[in-house]
Amino acid sequence: MFYFLLCIILLLVVFIFLRDKQLRMRISAFLAGARRRSVIIRLKFQLKKERQKRGSLLCELGKRAWEQGIPVRDSDFLQTELTKLVERKKTSQMEWKKALDELERLNQQLEMARRSHVENVKSEEADLKDLEAEARRERHDLEKAIHYWSKLKERLEHRIKSIEAQEEALFYSLGKNLEEARVSHQQLDSLYSQIDTINQRISTLLHRIETLSGG
């Protein structure tokens, strides 16, 4: 009985739908709008990806020009700042390597101290209380030094990451200047071509989004 009533209700709904032209148009418009919104979301996602690719290529363009010593108009400040950052990064990396080596040395020393303490405790000639006190002092000093060098290593890692982020921003700015100036150089031509291709894709996506949005 339930299924019979359900069929009757469905038939009535279909009958009303077929007779009501405005209802059909509203439903059709709703479905079309939903499809359009779905397409716009997909296009915006593609647009975001293409812009990210463009940004990466501009960074690479700026980096390559700087490494090759290619002069770029109105970019003296950028190139000067990049030179300073590279020196700071090099110094920080050397300090980080020193901190890492020191940590490895101290950890090895701490492990040796623990082993030595165990061996001394087993010796009948050793004064257990004196050994315990000496071992605690040695471990405390080593752990304090390890803590210091660990914190220094972390600070250096943060500093290096910050420098790399600043480098990337400057390379991006330099790349934008190059894109506008179009400095002719064999090392840059392939990147210009890739950037032009992506710019065309971005333009096409923006046009499609604007059209679908009713702009």
Explain what this protein looks like in three dimensions.
The protein has helices at 2-19, 21-68, 76-122, 128-181, 186-212. The chain is mainly alpha-helical and 215 residues long. Among the domains are: 75-181; 184-215. Helix 2 packs antiparallel against helix 5 and helix 3 runs antiparallel to helix 4. The protein is elongated, with a radius of gyration of 34 Å. The chain starts with a helix and ends with a helix.
Offer a quick outline of the entry:
With 215 residues, the chain is mainly alpha-helical.
Number of helices: 5
Stretches where pLDDT is under 50 for at least 5 consecutive residues are none
The N- to C-terminal Cα distance equals 53 Å
Report the biggest beta sheet as strand number plus sense, adding barrel if it closes.
none
The total of beta strands comes to 0
Mean pLDDT, to the nearest integer, reads 82
Instruction: Give the overall form.
Output: elongated
- The helix/strand series, from N terminus to C terminus, equals HHHHH
What is the CA-based Rg, rounded?
34 Å
- Helix proportion range: over 70%
The chain-level structural class is mainly alpha
Strand content: under 5%
